[in-house]
Amino acid sequence: MTYLDLVNNVLKRLRERPVGTINESRYSTLIGVIINDAKEVVENAWGWSALRTTLSATTESGVFNYVLTGSQNKITILDVLNDTDDVFLRYLPAHEMTQYYLIGTPQTGSPIHYSFNGVDVNGDTQVDIYPKPDGAYNLRFNCILRNDDLVADADTLVIPARPVELLAYAIAVEERGEDGGINPASAYARAKNSLDDAIALDATKHPEETLFYEV
After folding, report:
1. Strands in the chain per DSSP E
2. pLDDT band at residue 73, thresholds of 50, 70 and 90?
3. pTM as predicted
4. What is the residue extent of each domain of the chain?
């Protein structure tokens, strides 16, 4: 569903006239902002299958810090694979990574550990790896990558649209104080039910992530 479709669906629920472009009026522009607010909430609520992707980095000898280009600090890492040596990297807390590099002489070789280390000037997530690479290794970061805000009329929402639409409607009803037919609490309840249903459907693609094990 496009950004314009979402805006017009919310406007219709509010008994407002649909628009030909999102910024056609001040109110349609406001609804566009609210759509993005709702999108962020829904994206953060679950590891949607539609947001799952792989970011890659190829190491250089002696370089241990890498940027996950395009991540924009909006990722959740699922696993990290050293595809060259077919080894999954294990996460290390930052203080352990610091210990390896600053206390004693760091080892060199094929990477087996990773840790996060802030963001670069473009806002992309940075990772440190250990041991310090002694050559080129292809690293694959399987992750959930949340999208940037919708901007253009034709921008497409990839996560389920109905929870975003209903949550945006609830926010809009609350913002203007009344809707002549539904109160904000009821609107939020409908949005929550829609989100719960969408998560339940998407979770069938990754049932292992809804199970908990004793350790």
Report:
1. 52-58, 65-67, 75-82, 87-91, 108-109, 113-119, 125-130, 132-133, 138-145
2. confident
3. 0.89
4. 1-45, 49-145
